[in-house]
Write a structure and sequence with these properties.
373 residues; 13 helices; alpha/beta; single chain; 42% helix
Amino acid sequence: MATTWEGDRARKGSAPSLSGLHLGTTLADKFSSLHNRPTTESAGNNRDDRSLELKHAGDSTATDLKTLDFPARSEFLLATGVYWIPLYEILEERGFEVLLVNARDVHNVRGRKSDVSDCEWLRELHSVRLLRASFRPAAAIVPLRSYLRQRATLVEEAATRIQRMQKALTEMNLKLHTVLTDLTGQTGLKIVRSILNGERDAERLAAHRDHRCHASHAEIAAALTGNYRAEHLFALRQNFAAYEFLLQQITECDAAIEKQLSELAAQQPPPSTALLAPRRKTSSKHQPHFDIRSPLQRLTGGGDLSQIDSIGPQAALQIVAEIGTDMRRWPTEKHFTSCLRWRPTTRSPADACSALGLHRPPIGPRSFCAAVR
């Protein structure tokens, strides 16, 4: 169903048309479920005739979107939630120049609040190149970024399940947090499994103590004298099962990340320099259990980001997945650090961390930019 609205229809405050420099633009606004394209009359050089044809595409499937007719080679999408993603990916695959526009940059325009007038105004701005595109990495890097973001979500959900297990234990007066640093360590998991299997004797539960545990056998036994109620055991069992399921999903996600990283690295020539020894031999608990540094060094053209202070292999992988390897997207390192909010500050480290919502001081920008070049 297609409907035509005349751009020069009678309305208050109609702005004069601008002299077009970038003709033949298209807007697809998935939030308002409108696909806006110029008609034959407006696709010409007469910018005074701004008639627009708007097609409803709110219920389109991926197959339907691939069959849409986009006459222009330059498209722009309004970033609203995640609704723009399928259309953006399809247009990018078909070789279009796609600009992802932040709605915050244009939402303060007065007197243009309807979907139709917004489409006309944004198209007019894009025709004279006044719309600023939001950053999005190269298409080859996007799958790696999606896998890593999914993994981060799973790790956060696993941490939530650990907290709920701790809550259930506390409600049963089991003070494991006073004698164990990590509930999901070897000692903690063995004790939880034994409790779920029906063991209630504190001495037998304390026998699962690992030799590296700082608390003594007597201290652990004293912390395991509790009130085992059925409803709290039920909550403990469900959260423990959810935690183990999330660990399995994290392992599957690691396999997908390893495969994607290897495929990206295989497309680059081998590095000319040998891989340096790791700066840190210890690894975090939820770090991926595969070699990150070797394929990442090949992907970045021989640079080892893990040699930078405060950046380990996992952090280096996350940085590359978020920004890609093409540093030409930023004219200087100042533009880059401004985009990532890593600008140097004259504040003290404590004040800077408080203002940026960080727990540690910002990373030095110059050393990072030198490593990725």
